[in-house]
Amino acid sequence: MMIDMVSLAIAMGAGLIVISILTSLISFRIGAPLLLVFLVVGLLAGEDGIGGIPFQDASAAYFIGSVALAVILFDSGYGTQWRSFRLAATPALTLASVGVLLTALVLAVPAKFLLGLNWSEALLLGAIVGSTDAAAVFFLLRVGNIGIQDRVRATLEIESGSNDPMAIFLVITLLEMSAMGSLQEGWLGTFGLALLQQFGLGLGIGVAVGYLLVAVLNRFVFDAGLYPVLVLSLVLLLFGVTSVLGGSGFLAVYVAGIIMGNVRFRGGLTIRRFQEGLTWLAQITMFLMLGLLATPSEFPGIALGAVLVGLLLIFIARPLAVWLCLIPFGFTRAETTFIAWVGLRGAVSILLAILPIMAQLENGQLLFNSAFIIVLVSLVVQGWTIRPMARKLDLIVPPHLGAVDKVELELPGHAQHELLVYRVTRGSPVAEGERIPRWARPSLTVREGKSMQNHEDGRFKVGDYVYIFTTPRYISLLDRLFAQPVTLTRKDRRYFGDLAVDPERPVLELANYYGVSLRSGEDELTVAQLIARRLGATVVRGDRVPLGSIELVVRESDEQGVATAVGLALEPSVASTFQLPIFQNWQDIANALMHWWSARHLKTRAPRESESTTQPDHAQEAIDPQRNETKSR
Q: Where is this chain compositionally biased, Basic and acidic residues type (predicted)?
C-alpha cells in the first residue's frame, strides 16, 4: 500500500509538470505570464480545485522552495555579465536594499487599515512582498525577448537577483521582534550588526567559493556528465553552510553564479545547458507547490482589501521607492517609470509568507493569503503589460543583430579556441557572398547531409552548416556574418537619428552649424566626450542627448561604455518629447529650480508699468523660447 501511495505521488507530480509545460503553449499564444500559468495550475490541482490534492505541509513547502530558489538565483548570477554589472551595479543594489525597505514601510500603512493588521504585522506583510521575483523578471526580460536599453535591463536583472536576501532578512527580523513582544534596548544596533553579518558573510563566502569552484573544475578532470552534478551539489552546499554560519545563503549562491558565469573553466558549456533545464524545473516546481499550498476558499473574506493593497503596491509604494532610490543616477522619467512597473512579485513573496505560519503567528494564515492575492494581482496587471509599457515609453531598442542559427561545441582541455557551428540563413552576408576573414578557420561544411572540406565547398549556400574554429573575442564578429538581415521599421530608423555623426568630431562644429548652445566647458569636447559628460562615464546603445533643436543618439558603444557610432536626429523624437509629470531625476529637479529662480529673479527686476508700454518684454522672451521662436517666424 505504501508503495502504491509513493507511486501515485510521483505520477501526480510528474503529471502536473507535464500539464504546466503543455499549457505554456497556450500562454505564449495569448500573451499570459507563463509563471502565472504555473501558479494557476497548482491552484486548480489543490484541495479547493478540480484536482482535490490535499497539501498543507508548510515546512516541506518552505524547504523545497528554498532549494528551488537557490538554484534559480545561481542561474540568475550565472547569466549576468560583468558589463551589465558595471552598467548598473550601484542603482540596482540601492533598489535591492534601500528600495525593499522603503517599499515595506510605505505599504505597511494601507496594509494596516485595509486588512485590519497591527503595525508589526503590517510591516511584516510589506517586507514579505517587498522584493521583486527573480524568476518572473528574468523570464519576462530574457525569455520574453524584450529588447530594452542595456542599462535598464541590467538594473532590473541585478535588482531582482539581489533583493531577496534583504527581504528575507527583514521578514526574519520582524518575526523575531514579534516573538519578543516589544523592542529591546539596543535593537537598532542589533539590527545593523545582523544586517552586516548576513550580507558580509554572504558576499565574502560567495566570492571565495565562486573562484574556488572554478579552480577545482580546471584542476581535476571528471566525466563530462559529472560536471553539472558536482556544481549543483557544491552550490547547494554553499547555500547551506553560509546559512548555518549566519550569512545569506541566497546572496552567496547569486554571487558565486556571477563569478563562475564570467570566467572560463572546463565543463562551462555543459553546465550552462544543464542549468537552463534545471532552472525551468525549479520554477515550475516552486510555483506548482505554492499553488497547491494555497486555500482559495479562504480568499473571499480578504480579497477586496488584499487586491487594493496589491494595486497600491503597483501604483504608489513601488514607484515611490524606485524614484527615491534612482534620483541620483540620472535615469530618465521613462526609464524610471519602466523600472517601477517591472516590479513583479512572485514565488519569493509567497515563500516568505510561509514563515509566519511556521512561526505560529496569530494572523499567519491571513498574511499568507494576502501575499498570495497580491502576487496574483502583480502577475496579472504587470506581467501582462510589460511589452506594451516598454513600447509606450519608447524604451524598446531596435534589434542590434538578426537571428543567428548557431551551436557552440566545447573543446577538451584548456583550448583557447572554440568550435562553432553556423547554419547559413537566407539574406545573411555569408549567403550573399561575403567571405569569412582569415582569422577564422572553417574546417568543415555539411551540405545536404554530405561533409566537404573547406577548399571543396566553394561559395556557401543557404542551409549549409559551417564548422569554424575561432577565439572567443571574435565570435560577435562572426555572428554578424551569419545573422539574418534586420528589417528596421520607419520608426526604428527614426529612433537612431536621420544622420550619422563621427563620435570624434568636435561638438562645437555641430553647435555652430545647427545654432545650438553648449554648456560651460563643452566647447573643446568631441561628440563622444560630450555624450559621456552628459550621461556619465558609461553609455549604452539607445542613449539620447538633447542638444537644443537636435538630438544625439548612441547607435553603438564598446565594452568600456564609450560611444563608437552616433546618430543625429533633426526632429524631437518620441522618446524625448514624451515627458511624464513625475519621476524627475536630479538633473530635472536642478533645472526646474534654476528655471524657478531665474523667473523669480527676473520678475523682481521687471520694468515698471509706465515703462512696459514702450519697452519690449525681453525677460519673457528669454524664459519662453517657444514664444520667441514664434515671433521670429
A: 618-633
